[in-house]
Amino acid sequence: MTSRRLSYVIAALLAVILFGAITVILPRGLAGARLDLTQDKLFSISSSTKRMLADLDDPITLTYFFSQSVARDYPQIFTYGRRIRDLLAEYEALSDGKIRLKVIEPEPFSESEDSAVAAGLQGVPTNSGEQIYMGLVARDLTDRMALVPFFNQDRATFLEYDLTKLIASIAQPDKPALTLLTSLPMIPGQFGGFGAPARPGWAIHEQLTQLFDLGTLDADFTHIPQPTDILLIVHPPELSPRQLYAIDQFVLAGGRAVIFVDPMSEAVANARLPSAAPESSSLDPLFGAWGVDLIDDRVVADVDLAQRVNMGDGGPRAIKDFALWLAARTENMATDDPVTANLEQINLASSGALLPIEGSSVHFEPLLQSSAVSALLDKGVARGMPDPDQIMRMIEPTGERYTLIARLSGDSISAFPDGPPPPEDNADAEPDRPAEDEPPHLDRSNGPINVIVGADSDLFDDRFWVQVQDFFGERIHVPVADNANLVINAIDQLSGSDALIALRGRGVTQRPFDRVEDIRRAAESRFRMEEERLQAELAQTEARLADLQTAPLEGELMFSPEQDVEIQRFRDHMLEIRKELRTVQRNLIEDITALGARLALINIALMPALLILAALGLAIWRRKRSEWARQLQRSAP
């Protein structure tokens, strides 16, 4: 028995030594190995980003500026900054040498801080007067640069998307080619004649011109010009079969499209545009092939999202809820999609509704929806100046949330299965055969299509989302809604690689320690109770003092003995209450510290100890089992 016990002790000592060796050696020997056990896989790189990194041609240097020492006093910023650093290290490890990461801590009044400022990074001032830098600079071999001035935690769920987009912008620096088709006066017009003012166009067109290489489609187009990275269609005119076929083949061949149609354009219906512009627009039969249906004779009326409008001369009673004009909020948007993430409000007018077609192979993903307190009304109610109160009475909510904007993705069939339609001047002829210089007809998409469809075009109209002011001849845009950001996000996201389009948000990135929060709330509750008691007793004491002070004084500058006693009692009471408050605060810190110590003990000592005990128990059980087996063999006849 003595030798057996000695062997157990030796085994335990060897297990402890082995555990210590593992904790020291493994972090060095397996420095490149990583295992992500977080629920949202916050430190894992998606397959989309891996494909993008594999396609890089030239090396890119990423310089990450992070004020780690200053950020230690701010746990949320410090944790987020470390997460960014670790994720960038993953990019470097997976890039096969194409990503070169530098991590710099810009200490105050140092050359590294000067480098951060010179690069355009933004520092966040702290209470101590120091700056926290948490930004990224990307450069290629030609010194082309892109940067993130400061990583805002509001974008934490899209950290991988933002990093991948930054690298892609360096790898592909040219502006995306955007081709626009519209019947609305978005584009600035020419002078109408001598003395006639120029039509300024809409504010969103000016922003698109700054961000993209913007071109337009003529009314008689028969093909989509090349190069076209993104096709933007906004309330199109009535299109011929040949024009619909050109759009069909563009999308099936891998072209991306952002399309906004409208069952009731208020700009047209209210006679704000020439009669040549259609009142309604659609892209049938393309929508049918793409698995989406536009309810083209109904508009969405929403009680919860109704905009407040002035229906009179400005009196208080003239301000009413207009249920046909919607102000969609964050809760109506897909918060895990980069197109609608971090937007606060989208204004629409007489919007239609989109429905997925059952059985379609195309995936229908809502990006913007109405509330559950909404209904579909005949689009005729939007003409003229409808009475808001009457519109409200017409709404009978069904509890359904109607899709206003959707993303379409997946394999699709052609809306023209028999090939190109015949020329417009000979509709009875056989379908055209493709010319020698034209690509062959596609019956199905070459890969997943990427289309974003909206059921309203009035969201582009200046009057619904921006105030345009004239400042000494210069047009100043003051947005009141995120309509332009929505459109730009959609175009920008679709203009990226397939890897960028596939990326989504990672969900919740900060998870509270529930037990710690319970302790904190309980302590704060006690603190508030003590504080309220102090304030109540203080008020009573002050009232008593006021009564005493109205009594006659024994001398000109002396209080009576009763007053002196009351004042001293008040002071003693104040000291006692303050002491109690300090005790509550100290107990709060002690409770949380004790919990942290217990958690550290569990993680550092208890769990390894349990593993060692389990291993020893398993070894003892196996030894016992072998002894029993030998005893059975000896006792067998």
Derived from helix and strand composition plus strand pairing, the structural class reads alpha/beta
Distance between the termini: 28 Å
Task: Please count the beta strands (DSSP E, at least 2 residues each).
Answer: 21
Low-pLDDT runs of 5+ residues are 27-32, 190-194, 429-435, 507-511
By DSSP (H or I, 4+ residues per run), the number of helices equals 16
Query: What's the story with the biggest beta sheet?
Result: 7 strands, mixed
Mean pLDDT: 80
Which outline best applies?
Answer: extended
Over the alpha carbons, how many angstroms does the gyration radius reach?
A: 35 Å
Q: How are the strands ordered across the major sheet?
A: 7-6-8-9-19-18-16
Total number of distinct structural domains: 3
> Within the CATH hierarchy, at the fold level, what is the topology of the largest domain?
Rossmann fold
CATH architecture of the largest domain: 3-Layer(aba) Sandwich
Which CATH first-tier class of the largest domain would you pick?
Alpha Beta
State the helical fraction: 25-40%
Q: DSSP strand (E) fraction? A: 15-25%
Outline the secondary-structure elements.
Elements: H1 2-29, H2 47-54, E1 60-66, H3 68-71, H4 75-94, E2 99-104, H5 111-119, E3 123-125, E4 131-140, E5 145-148, H6 159-171, E6 177-182, H7 203-211, E7 213-216, E8 230-234, H8 241-252, E9 256-260, H9 266-269, H10 286-289, E10 292-294, E11 298-302, E12 306-310, E13 319-329, E14 345-349, E15 354-356, E16 363-369, E17 374-378, H11 388-394, E18 403-410, E19 449-454, H12 462-465, E20 466-471, E21 474-479, H13 483-494, H14 498-502, H15 514-549, H16 561-635
Parallel strand pairs: 1-2, 6-7, 6-8, 8-9, 9-19
Antiparallel strand pairs: 1-4, 3-4, 4-5, 10-15, 11-17, 12-13, 13-14, 16-18, 18-19, 20-21
Helix pairs in contact: 15-16
Keywords: Coiled coil, Membrane, Transmembrane, Transmembrane helix
Biased composition (Basic and acidic residues): 430-444
Pfam families: ABC_transp_aux, DUF7088
